[in-house]
Amino acid sequence: MTVTEREIQEGGPVVVVPEHMMASRVKSHHGGFPATLETARNELNSMNLEEDAVSSPASSSPATPATPGSPLTPAEVPTADSFAFAFDIDGVLIRGGRPIPEAVEAMKVLNGENEYGMKVPYIFLTNGGGKTEAERCIDLSRQLDIEVSPAQFICGHTPMREMVEKYGTVLVVGGEGEKCRQVAEGYGFRDVVTPGDIIKDNQHTTPFRKLTAEETANSRKRNYGETKIEAIFVFADSRDWAGDIQIMLDLAMSKDGYIGTLSETFNEGPPIYFSHNDIVWSAAHDNVRLGMGALRKMVEMLFKDLTKGKELETIAFGKPQIGTFEFATRLLQQWRKDEHRINAPPDTVYFVGDTPESDIRGTNQFNDKAKNEWYSILVRTGVFQKGTEPAYKPRVTVDTVLDAVKHGMKREFTKKMKSASSNFTLNSLAFKNISLNGEMTVGTKTPILELSEGNTPERAMSPMAPLS
């Protein structure tokens, strides 16, 4: 199945489903990216699903009973309802545009190819951006050979869509060509300006950058000296640091956002938002590469030098910001409800990342305030390397994302077995394939028991669902 660039820009269903999955797909999404993500966002803003589910388990719909032991999807393979996974992408699943080998296997495990015979819900939470969420999902679907829905995907700039009503004319920085302008306009920003527009109006703005013929054709002509820029959004990594920094500083030091003016107090410029604050990231090169956080530091440092000591306060989205994890919590809740018919938050979310300063730091900080457990797992396939000491300590460090998935599933299985053994006298026949520490000893189709306080011993001794 293919999709054209024009179809992506015009909207509609754009998620690419690998051919071999077409026959086995149980449910499908309708309405494409705009419908799925917009529906999720509107619902999440109008209700607090986490509080509702925690405070009143009985409020679950008849089709989605609160009893954790009940299979809640019509699929042949049951779904785990007590835990879920969230993944960073670069350095965890993908490196240099290519899938990390263990990542493909890890997705298969989560989709039911495991010794417990169950699926596990998951979402993707990346600081990367520069494309629409739909385009990123197409890329990831092809790379990992799975179906990825925009309803389970968050880019660094996804939360910026919440700023649409606040600002009129905005400058959007970063990314390839016109892509970030298209993303911003897709979010609903009404008047989007790019650095190329400003350079086209006045070529002396950046003495050493000349627009290509394509950039000149795409850039929009107007008198930008008479245009008030109300906010600056750095959607993706800059492709021209010198030119972009120059224009951002011109506006930061301007009077009320009019380029070409100079404030006397240097506190009248528009606010500057960055989609994330990662200093480095893991690319195809053997060593890490500079990221958006480095650009942010340069802008702030140069502003201070140029203004003789004035501080420039900028705002960053993405990890490790608590707001990003709160957004992820609500998105995961909605994804579990819509895709898996589970109308309750998971007890544990396993977050797998490769950057201690953003992935692990953010997960640990959010765990301190969240109502459920956020469990940080650090992998060695990206920014963090074996033999170094992470600045922020994860709950566990493993080699690959496949190891992370296996660790989380084994931990959950062990918890269930301990809970069962402490509350019930179980028939030994039910657990004949399980060792004392909860590990599988023989076979691959022994079901995991999902238990709750209200289950009877007879119920506890029954498998949660037949296995195919």
Q: What is the compact description of this entry?
A:
This protein is an alpha/beta fold and 468 residues long. It is built from 14 helices and 15 strands. A 6-stranded parallel β-sheet has the order 5-4-1-13-14-15, sandwiched between helices.
Describe the protein in words.
The chain is of the alpha/beta class and 468 residues long. The chain has helices at 5-10, 32-46, 49-55, 101-110, 133-144, 179-187, 195-201, 213-218, 241-252, 292-306, 322-340, 356-369, 401-423, 457-460; strands spanning 83-87, 94-95, 98-99, 122-125, 153-154, 169-173, 191-193, 231-234, 272-274, 280-281, 289-290, 315-316, 348-353, 373-379, 396-398. It has a 6-stranded parallel beta sheet, sandwiched between helices. A 5-stranded parallel beta sheet has the order 7-6-8-9-12, with helices on both faces. The two termini are 28 Å apart. The model is unreliable at 11-17, 20-37, 47-75, 428-439 and 441-468 (pLDDT under 50).
